[in-house]
Amino acid sequence: MSSWIDYTVNGIIIGNIYALLAVGLALIFGVSRLINFAHGSVYVVGAYAGFLAVTHLGTPLPVTIVIVLVVGALLGLVIERFGLRPLQGYAHIAPLLATIGISFVLDQLVQLFFTPDPRAVPSSLLEVRFQIGSGTIGALDLVIAGIGLASAGLLYYFLRFTRLGWAVRATAQDRDAAQQMGVDVDAVNRTVFAIASGLGAVSGLLVGMYYNYIDPSMSFQATLKGVVAQVVGGVGNVPGAIVGSLLLGLVESYGIALFGTSYRNLFAFVLLVIVLVWRPNGLFASKRQTPPEPMTGTFIAPSKPVQIPGKVLVGAAVVAALLPLVFPHPYVLQTLTNSWLYALLGLSLTLIAGTVGLVSLGHAGLLAIGGYASALLAINCGVPVGLAILSAGLIAALLGTLMAFPAFRLRGHYLSIATLAIGEIVSLVILNWEWLTRGPIGLSGIPPLSLFGIELDTDRSIYWFTLAVLVVLAALQFRLLGSHLGRVLRAVRDDDVAARSYGIGLNRYKALAFAVGSFAAGISGGITSHLYSYINHETFNAQLSILALTIVILGGMGNVTGAIVGSILLVGLPEVFRVAAEYRVLIYGLVLLLLVRFRPQGLLGTV
Amino acid sequence: MPVLHRRFLLGASAALLLGRAAQAEPAKGEPITMGVSGPLTGPNAQYGAQWKQGFDLALEEINTDGGIKGRPLAYVFEDTQSDPRQSVAVAQKFVANPKIVVELGDFASPASMAASPIYQRGKLVQFGFTNSHPDFTKGGDYMWSNSVSQADEQPLSAAYAVKRLGLKRIAVLHLNTDWGRTSKDVFVKTAKELGAEIVATEGYLPDEKDFRSTIVRVRDAKPDGVMLMSYYSDAALICRQLKQAGLTLPIVAASSVFSPKFIELGGDAVEGVHTASRYFPDDPRPQVRNFVTKFKAKYGKDPDAFNAYAYDTIMVMAKVMREFGTDRKSIHDGLAKVKDVPSIIFGKATFDPRTRRVDGAMSVELVVKDGKFQLNEPQAAVR
Fold it and tell me: Which residues contact B21 (CB under 8 A, 6 or more apart)?
């Protein structure tokens, strides 16, 4: 029994840490309707600024906190000014991509300045510990809780009782109306970014001291947990974010208590999906507060797509097919083969996110399902590889649609976060379902690609095979978009109320699109597993889902050609920048930012 | 044609210009180039940085000592972020570049093993020096590894925990990766054979930082000792949180905690942690003395396990190339024939041509005392 007290205390302590992150994310979301993927990077910068202050200047804790707060706030201002303000007025998807680009740049800068080695952050606090239950808590736990509560209290006061706070809330409710009433919306945005980033930076410092450990790669996990926590509480809701964080911490802790450590994140993400399905606007969404989460349509930039004549497309396909004959360099062919495989993933997501408006952040899950299905069929049942890949597509279509079905009633960001959770759940189920997937050991000895008994064992044959699959699926998707069905799907995206009043069964069409899209992703995963010959639960990780979304946004939502172009660029650019060695990810991030800046609707525009 | 990184080549030749007078003439002329595929950016970047330190030290030594038959040895490091998508592209790049005579790496199994079919088809040796995955060398006869196999290492840890420290009820915390999982399985099996009971096993993900609830679970299983299958950074976190939870149990950890960072990150919480390592800084073996002294002089810190793996690997390659030739085929054939390469990890390394691995890692039982890894007296290095 006493252990349960310990688990509860531990859950609250961890929830406390998540809260520091979630509050900042919630503030920014409340005002800008933006999930700030750079928040974790601000947290890392804060941790390193604190590290410098403590180790080089020997500052005491309160001074360190002030320094870090200022650094974080200044960084927030810079992010707002150069990353996001230029994108105002475009749909929300462009700033989202901008924050992804900013996070690449910041993480990489920190790594270049401080080396990738982890560092210890000495805490200047006394090592006093208090007995609670049969465990102990330390002074730093109390400081973290105090800062969490104090910042929540100050925020409450600021939002309720100051003029600027009123302006922030007004802007959050209706940006245009606020502007008409004379609110300086830019000033509001600046303030919010400064406050949120200051808090984010301080949480990086405190967490670094808490664990006596910081490294430049801890930002992604921080963003992930913070986002989950704030969505559980209802996006954009500051008190909700705190309660959501505590709940997340508790569920993780109880999950460990009941089933063991390797189920920890599984529980967190299952909780998230349940909360979202049960309360589609988060636990604490009140009627009064309902800022209508953007109708699916406003999420996506309306624009005129670049018209590319059919002849040019056919010509491009022919050139791609002839390339291995004139320029048979295996490295180039491999990079392009990778591009074709990611273009398949892009086709899948551009249909689901672009054409129907379901912005999925868990697409790597579909790759994983396809990869494992094809590999297991080929290894355990001796199914010929070609057939196994085809079956993998069908299995991904079926499982993907079934899993995403409960999420179809969600909108906008809630749907994105639900799919993110579903993607993580797939990966964690693969990790824990050992008799089938061999858990972390992974599947090795996956048979190589072959078709009708002929092994595809040259770089050219693999290149042609993937290109052919891509061309066929892309052609089908063109047909689909041009058909009546394609128009229905776009109608669902642009205005679901209008679509429903025309008698369109929304869920059926969403499911249909999801199934078609998942098929392409499953095929891509299947081919990948046979190319790699070894996969485990880390092969298809969450970063791939982000890459998929980046491909789609960059190419233009719903745009088939755009998905292919986006994939060639995003897979190819890191290879092109190889000469820059350690700087290449930095350059990649900057290029991404410039592309968003000048083509916020995507290179080829939304279809 | 892929462009060679001139930076590295220049670095190598600068190193040999500055090199002190050695037994032989410094190497000059066209360098012999090895390809390295590994993480320089991304979450595993720290390990790539450690590889480089080990490589550079070994190359300096070899190139001031005549290089390979008078030619300098060099490497090209291609960053893959330990991501399979990039490691396969890099594999094609290396295979297509006739200047690359052997490939070293990648770091994690998914990235390394995804590239194996390409190296096998291209008949370029893929030398996975941190690849302990039991299936790595099964990818084909061009996959070789001098990584310590867990079937080799973990029985030594189990013997340390059960026989030496007399633990009877052990709780095992392991990284839930292919390495951690394989290690745990071997350890649990051997420990049971030696008569200990395993009261809890908990697998955690590499990016986890909070272990408080895991520790409550461990505590409730009433162990008399804890075994950590961890890298140094997560092991340090666990030790600190064990101490904060008021659990003062003997802790044994896998040899990958052997790093000055472990002590820096763990502080006084890692005092008394045991590990069965392959070598230690005050090791009397001459090659270890040479390695530790030179490493300290060059980088101002003690070397860790990953530095040693990288250093050893270059030494293996140099000996193979000196004795059997510098083209791809000679290196492949030479690995099967080379005998008794002086090694930090193995004492003397000889590959088993059947498994393409090396058996018989050295073992010294260490304990952290006064903020340093020290020999757990009274005993001498075994084997």
Answer: none
Q: Is residue A454 part of a domain?
A: yes
Regarding whether A192 and A45 lie in a shared domain, the answer is yes
Write down the H helix ranges in A84-162: 93-114, 139-161
What residue of A is the nearest CA neighbor of B94?
A: A331
Residue A533: φ, ψ to 5°: 70, -15
**A116 contacts B265? CB cut-off 8 A:** no
Looking up tokens 């461990």, which residue turns up?
A: B218
The size of the A-B interface in CB pairs under 8 A is: 201
Q: Which residue has the tokens 């190339």?
A: B321
Please list every residue in chain B whose beta carbon sits closer than 8 Å to the beta carbon of residue A207: 209
Mean pLDDT score across all residues of chain A: 87
CA nearest to B265, candidates B303, B238, B300: B238
A484 and A342 inside one domain: yes
Residue pair B377/B362 in contact (Cβ under 8 Å)? The answer is no
For residue A523, the enclosing domain spans 327-541
Query: In angstroms, what CA-CA distances link A380 with A374, A384, B49, B135?
Result: 10, 11, 40, 17
> What secondary structure letter does DSSP report for B177?
S
A326 touches chain B (CB under 8 A): no
Residues of chain B with C-beta less than 8 angstroms from the C-beta of A571: 85
pLDDT at B336: 93
B216 and A334 in contact by Cβ < 8 A? no
User: Could you give the angle at the alpha carbon of B354 between the alpha carbons of B349 and B359, nearest 5°?
Assistant: 30
What's the pLDDT band for A292 if we cut at 50, 70, 90?
very low
* Average pLDDT of the residues in A523-550: 91
What is the pLDDT averaged over residues A361-385?
94
CB A521 within 8 A of CB A371: no
What confidence tens digit (pLDDT) does each residue in A375-426 have? Answer: 999 999 999 999 999 999 999 999 999 988 888 888 777 888 889 899 999 9
In this structure, the strands spanning B100-105 and B126-127 are parallel
> What percent of chain A has a predicted confidence (pLDDT) above 90?
36
Mean pLDDT of A291-314: 68
> Is A6 within 8 Å of chain B by CB?
yes
Which domains, ranges and CATH numbers included, belong to chain B?
Answer: 6-148+285-352 (3.40.50.2300), 150-277+364-375 (3.40.50.2300)
Can you list the residues of chain B whose pLDDT is less than 50? 1-22, 380-383
Residue among A262, A444, A533 whose CB faces B176 most closely? A262
A571 contacts B216? CB cut-off 8 A: no
Best of A538, A567, A579 to disrupt the B interface by mutation (most B CBs within 10 Å)? Answer: A538
Q: Does A438 touch chain B (CB under 8 A)?
A: no
Nearest CA in chain B to A139: B244
Write down which residue in A165, A195, A226 finishes a domain.
A226
Can you give the C-alpha Rg of chain B in angstroms? 21
Provide CB contacts within 8 A for A160, sequence distance 6+.
none
| pLDDT for residue B316 | 94
**pLDDT digits over A143-164, tens only?**
888 888 888 788 888 888 888 8
Q: How many domains does chain A have?
A: 2
Distance from C-alpha of A20 to C-alpha of A204, rounded to nearest angstrom: 9
